[in-house]
Amino acid sequence: MTNADGDYHNFYVHGVQFQILDINGDLPPPEFAGWKDTVFLKPGDTVRIAMLFTKYADPSLPYMFHCHRLRHEDEDRGMMGQFVVVEQGQQPVPPNRDDTGNAHIHRPAKSPGIGQ
Q1: Is residue 109 part of a domain?
Q2: How many C-beta atoms surround the C-beta of residue 75 within 10 A?
């Protein structure tokens, strides 16, 4: 991910941890080793991360990401979003829409992996 904005951002992913592979093409310093759920991005920084999805990947249940600065969560600048994880060849399940156009995510009674 790249911070193309002129502001600082703490990028956070709900429900999954990640490892930082590189920052601006360089190996991360020792304090960035280990599993994270948040990464700090200075203006112009590019960070590559690797996430491992095991039990809780479902094409109808999205993960959420956002900037942890509260004022950025309310702005429509790509500071908050969702993504689904699918297996190769699998398609995401689109959300159901009501009469007003609002999306409603289909939530199965029991998600894969829960309670296992």
Answers
A1: no
A2: 11
d(CA 48, CA 30): 16
pLDDT on residue 90: 82
pLDDT at 113: 44
How many domains would you assign to the chain? 1
Is the C-alpha dihedral spanning 99, 105, 106, 109 positive or negative? Answer: negative
Average pLDDT over all residues of the chain: 77
Say which DSSP state 64 is in. E
For residue 99, the domain's CATH number is 2.60.40.420
Inside any domain, residue 79: yes
The tens digit of pLDDT for each residue in 29-69 reads 999 889 998 998 899 999 999 998 876 677 788 888 877 66
Determine, yes or no, domain membership for 15.
yes
Domain-located, residue 111: no
Burial of 58: CB neighbours in 10 Å, binned 0-12, 13-18, 19+: buried
Host domain of residue 15: 9-104
Rg of the chain on CA atoms, in Å: 16
- The pLDDT of 110-116, averaged and rounded, is 42
